[in-house]
């Protein structure tokens, strides 16, 4: 099973709806299992950097198959992944807001949300995944 463009639209809409309810403007990125961009949307009022952060968060969650919120401590100076953010060609971002998407126990993609506080971005992403079912 793969993440479809229909799935991506559901994720985009649900994440933006959760952000709007909270009064936050965001960017949302959806990647397929290969790390390829499947969908992207930035609210007109969202800060420009949110587009980059949402994409990096999604990529990080996908590559490590874990929510970025769970990885923050791993890159601290005494953490086991301390050098990982600078070790790869494609930059990772260890800030909450990236969440892998699974279907039937299989990793099929990831969502990244940027623009709010990290905890907000994480909650918007998880709300979107819950909507996907």
Supply the key terms.
133 residues; alpha+beta; four-stranded antiparallel β-sheet; 4 helices
Give an overview of the whole structure:
By secondary structure, this protein is α+β, with helices and mostly antiparallel strands. The chain is 39% helix and 20% strand. The protein has 4 helices and 4 strands. The chain has helices at 5-21, 49-64, 84-87, 118-132; strands at 27-32, 37-42, 98-103, 106-114. It has a 4-stranded antiparallel beta sheet with strand order 2-1-4-3. Helix 1 packs across helix 4 (118-132). It is globular.
Query: Count the helices. How many?
Result: 4
Tally the beta strands.
Answer: 4
The topology string of helices and strands comes to HEEHHEEH
Mean pLDDT, rounded to whole units?
Answer: 93
Largest sheet: 4 strands, antiparallel
* Poorly predicted parts: none
Strand order of the largest sheet: 2-1-4-3
Helix content: 25-40%
| Shape assignment | globular
Query: Span between N and C termini?
Result: 14 Å
**Based on helices, strands and strand pairing, what is the structural class?**
alpha+beta
Radius of gyration: 14 Å
| Residues in β-strands, percent | 15-25%
Task: Characterize this entry briefly.
The protein has 4 helices and 4 strands; from the N terminus they run αββααββα. It is of the alpha+beta class.
Q: What does the secondary structure layout of this molecule look like, with pairings?
A:
Blueprint: H1 5-21, E1 27-32, E2 37-42, H2 49-64, H3 84-87, E3 98-103, E4 106-114, H4 118-132
Antiparallel strand pairs: 1-2, 1-4, 3-4
Helix pairs in contact: 1-4
